[in-house]
Design a protein that fits this description.
alpha/beta, Enolase-like, domain 1, TIM Barrel, three-stranded antiparallel β-sheet, 14 strands, binds D-glucarate, binds magnesium ion
C-alpha cells in the first residue's frame, strides 16, 4: 500500500473575540485539513494549524509522503519530524502554530494522524487500539473559559450568534462556566488568564470555586503575563483553590522563571504544580524542566509535539519521571478533536482532563460528516469505528476553503487584533504585571 494522493485544504473558521496575554482572537481562526489517499483506495484525514506557515511546511513534506508506505512512520520521523534543537521553540512570543522552529514537526504530526487513520481502516481498528490498546474508552476534557468581548466570530452576513456574550468580569465568568458545563458536562475547569488585573483573576477563580465546589479542579493560565513576584503572590492567594487536581500554568516566562516561582512557593509550604505548554514544547525540554523542578505537569499536544505517538511517548516519560501530563489546545475542528481524544485514550498517564477550544466553534463551521463531535459528561467517547472514527463532509470543507481564499488572514496575529479593536498602541509586554 502506498500513498497516491496528498491533498491540502486551508480553511477559515469563525472564532469569537477571545482574549489572552497574546491579545485578541481574530474573527476567523485558520486550520488546515489534510487528506491522504492510498493505492488501495483508503482515505486518511488529519487537521493541522492554519495559514501560510503550515501550508508551506505541508507542501515541503509532500514529496516524501507521496509514494510512501503509511506504515513507515519512523522513516519519515527520522528524515523530517524530529524537533529542532536550534532556535527558540518556546511559545513565549509566538502563538502555537506560528513558530518556524517546530514547523517540520507539526507537518509530520499532520501526516502521522492521517497515516494512523489509514492503518486503522486497513486493519479495522480504532487508532488508540493500534497503539497498545486504549487506556480509557472516553477522553475527558475541561471547560476552557476565556474573558471575551461581545461577538460570536465571523464577519458581516457570516457573523455567528454570540453564544456566551461579553465576559470581562469575574461574575460573568461564572455565568460562562455554568453555561459551558450545562452544555458539555465538563468536570474540570481551566481559566485563560493574563487579561485582567491579577486581583480580578484571583477573584474570578475564587468565585468559580464558590460556585462549583472543590470537586471541580481549577487551573489558571496567564501565558507568562506575570513576573516571578506576581506569580508567587497569585500562587499563595490561590493555594486552596488550585489544590486537589488543579495547577498553575505558565504563570511566568522561561524555565528559570518557572523554577524560581516553584522554589518560592515551596519555601512557603505550597506545592501547587506548575504546568507548561510555553517553556516545554518538545521531548528534549522535559528532562531539563524536571531537573530544575521548573514544571510538574507537561502539556502535550499532538499537533506540535509530533503526533499522537509523540504524546504517548511523552506520557510514558512523564510517568517515569514522576511528572503529570495534560493536553494543550488551540482553536480546532472535529478532526483535531478526534486526534486529541485518541492521543488521550492511548496515553495511560493522562490523568488530567485535556484542554479544548471546541465549545468556541459552531456547528456552521464543522467539517465532519454528521456534524459536531458529541460530549458525554465532558468526555469524547472513542467511536466504535476504525481509524479516527470520523469522516469529512467535503462540501463543507470546500465552503470553508473558499472562505479562506476570500479572507485576508494568513497567520494568527492576536496583537494586531488588539490594536485594531481595543487599543491602537497595544503591545505584548512580558511580564505585564
Ligand atoms: O487561544 O488564546 C488562546 C490561547 O491562549 C492559546 O493560544 C494557548 O496556546 O490555549 C493555549 C495555552 O494553553 O497556552
Ligand atoms: Mg497554556
Amino acid at each position: 500500500m502506498r500513498i497516491s494522493s496528498f491533498s491540502i485544504h486551508p480553511v477559515a473558521v469563525a472564532d469569537p473575540p477571545l482574549r489572552s496575554s497574546y491579545g485578541r482572537h481574530a474573527p476567523y481562526a485558520l486550520r488546515t485539513i489534510l487528506v491522504l489517499t492510498t493505492t488501495d483506495g483508503i482515505t486518511g484525514i488529519s487537521e493541522a494549524h492554519g495559514g501560510d506557515g503550515s501550508l508551506a511546511a505541508l507542501e515541503a513534506v509532500r514529496p516524501l509522503v507521496e509514494g510512501m508506505d503509511p506504515f513507515h512512520l519512523h522513516a519519515l520521523w527520522e528524515k523530517w519530524g524530529k524537533p529542532s534543537t536550534q532556535g527558540d521553540r518556546s511559545q513565549t512570543w509566538l502563538v502555537p502554530g506560528e513558530n518556524p522552529h517546530d514547523a517540520r514537526t507539526r507537518a509530520f504530526a499532520a501526516v502521522e494522524a492521517a497515516c494512523l487513520d489509514i492503518i486503522g481502516k486497513a486493519v479495522n481498528q480504532p487508532v488508540c487500539d493500534l497503539l497498545g490498546g486504549r487506556a480509557r474508552d472516553a477522553a475527558p476534557f475541561s471547560a476552557y473559559l476565556f474573558y471575551k468581548h461581545g461577538g460570536g466570530g465571523g464577519l458581516g452576513p457570516d457573523a455567528r450568534d454570540d453564544e456566551y456574550g461579553e465576559c470581562l468580569t469575574p461574575e460573568s465568568m461564572v455565568r460562562q462556566c455554568r453555561q459551558m458545563i450545562a452544555t458539555y458536562g465538563f468536570r474540570e475547569i481551566k481559566l485563560k488568564g493574563g487579561v485582567l488585573e491579577p486581583a480580578l483573576e484571583i477573584e474570578t477563580i475564587r468565585l468559580l470555586r464558590d460556585a462549583f465546589g472543590s470537586t471541580f479542579p481549577l487551573r489558571i493560565d496567564p501565558n507568562c503575563a506575570w513576573s516571578v513576584e506576581t506569580s508567587v503572590h497569585v500562587g499563595i492567594a490561590l493555594q486552596e483553590e488550585l489544590s486537589g487536581g488543579g495547577y498553575l500554568e505558565d504563570p511566568t516566562s522561561s524555565m528559570e522563571g518557572m523554577a524560581q516561582v516553584r522554589r518560592q512557593l515551596l519555601a512557603q509550604g505550597i506545592d501547587t504544580p506548575l504546568a507548561s505548554n510555553v517553556a516545554v514544547t518538545g521531548l528534549n525540554d522535559v528532562v531539563p524542566a524536571w531537573g530544575e523542578d521548573a514544571v510538574q505537569v507537561v502539556l502535550s499536544d499532538p499537533h506540535y509535539w509530533g503526533g499522537i505517538r509523540a504524546v504517548q511517548r511523552l506520557s510514558f516519560l512523564c510517568e517515569a519521571l514522576g511528572m503529570g501530563v495534560s493536553m494543550h489546545s488551540n482553536n480546532h475542528l472535529g478532526v483535531s478533536m478526534m486526534i486529541m481524544a485518541h492521543a488521550c485514550a492511548a496515553s495511560p498517564a493522562m490523568r488530567f482532563a485535556c484542554d479544548t477550544h471546541y465549545p468556541w466553534q459552531s456547528a456552521q463551521d464543522e467539517v465532519l460528516a454528521g456534524g459536531r463531535v458529541k460530549f458525554v459528561d465532558g468526555a469524547v467517547v472513542i467511536p466504535a469505528k476504525p481509524g479516527l472514527g470520523v469522516d469529512l463532509d467535503m462540501d463543507q470543507v470546500a465552503r470553508l476553503e473558499e472562505r479562506y481564499h476570500q479572507l485576508p488572514y494568513r497567520k494568527r496575529d492576536d496583537a494586531e487584533e488588539m490594536r485594531r479593536h481595543v487599543d491602537p498602541s497595544w503591545q505584548r509586554v512580558l511580564p505585564r504585571w
